[in-house]
Amino acid sequence: MLSQLLLGEAVEILDRADGMARVCFDRGRQEGFVNEDQLLPVADTVYHKQLHEPAYALDLFGMLMGDSFAMPVTFAARLPAYDGLQLNHDGQRLLYSGQAVLAADLAQDAALMLRFGRKWLYVSELPGGRTPTGVGNVELVQLLLDLLGVNFPRSLASITTEGVNVDFVEQCQTGDVAFFDAGKGAVNHVGLLLPGSEVLHVSGRVRIDAVDHLGIFNREKGRYTHRLRVVKRFLPDAALTQPISLDDRFVEQPENSRQILIF
Q1: What is the mean pLDDT of each run of 10 residues along the chain (263 residues)?
Q2: What's the CA gap between 63 and 59, in Å, rounded?
Q3: CA distances (Å), 223 to each of 125, 144, 178, 228, 250, in order?
Q4: What are the domain boundaries of the chain?
Q5: Which of 37, 114, 198, 224 is deepest in the core (most CB within 10 A)?
Q6: Which fold has domain 110-262?
Q7: Cα(244)–Cα(60) distance, rounded to whole angstroms?
């Protein structure tokens, strides 16, 4: 599976064959195939509104209620023509009683993004997944940043060429995106930096681990699992009242201690 499309996400159809459509998504950066039955033709005005001015569902799981059916939706689904109570989908009015917000009302605020991110803790890892039944490593970061209006790619190859480099660890701020490798040189992992030398990322499941200038330290395994390569900023610079420190190093205590020291 390359990726997943959520309700209301805009794509362009490039070709059709045997009930499948080849579509362009991720703002023109990727192509893939989807069953034609899962696509709904819309006017250009609707397409651009869904692309640039959507209303987002904020609950991990929710339901759209019609007169004779219910449709499940997940976090970051885009609700067409949403008025605060109901939306219009394929000419039908559907009720949505969960949390939702207009894109215009979301500030590019790191604390808000991480509050959304913590909702995903313990969701299982699924490469390419973008729902609470399974989410990919890059995909979680993309969902959270996209919610705040940041044009964040879904592929590592595209991400590494974008954003602003953070050259010194003392300049890191909450919400910066850290890039890692697993000891083989090529960047293959990303995470969002949190206060207190921690990182939100997906490794087996959505989790929060310790991080320093060497990389991610998994306290459960008692070792580093990912090596830090670079840090990039996609949100506006913030006044650092308490800079994030990545200068500390984690070491394992003797077996009878079961603690991790920072020195």
Answers
A1: 90 92 85 92 90 94 92 95 90 92 93 95 96 96 93 76 83 92 82 94 97 93 93 85 57 40 29
A2: 10
A3: 20, 28, 18, 14, 9
A4: 12-104, 110-262
A5: 224
A6: endopeptidase fold (from Nostoc punctiforme) (3.90.1720)
A7: 29
